[in-house]
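Quick one:
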Amino acid sequence: MSPFLLGMISKQRIEGIVNEFITNSDLFLVEVRTGPSRITVFVDKPSGVTLDECAALNRYISNVLEPEGVWESCELEVSSPGMDQPLKVLPQYLRRIGREIRVITVDGSEHNGKLDAADDEGISLTEIIVEKENKKRIRKEIASRISFSNIKETKLKLSFKI
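Output:
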């Protein structure tokens, strides 16, 4: 994509096009990434986004931007964020209530526990702390509240236990 076209197709423009498409659906926008020759759009929904929904959004964005000649030198990718990707928006947190997460705060501390709740302000989680007392291991549950402004990164803890 030429620098001229890249300047015309801003991240905010792509977000607006996506938001037009997802209005009146349970899909939500997670993130838009733009690069010199690629536009990547991540969407999700409470029950999990389908391949057909990603394909339909891809076609919609492509058709809206086709008259501007964007696709001569730029690729478009529409997908759901992978399980290894950080949580970015409130609906992602709401979808993962009850799951184990790892939170790194802006001061660098790490919190591991079960996501209990999420709202516009932040998240609540139950951390399991194991301490030794008189050669015994004591498990303690600690309720924590972390504001979104204090979160640097949140990821799901993936477990492959059967």
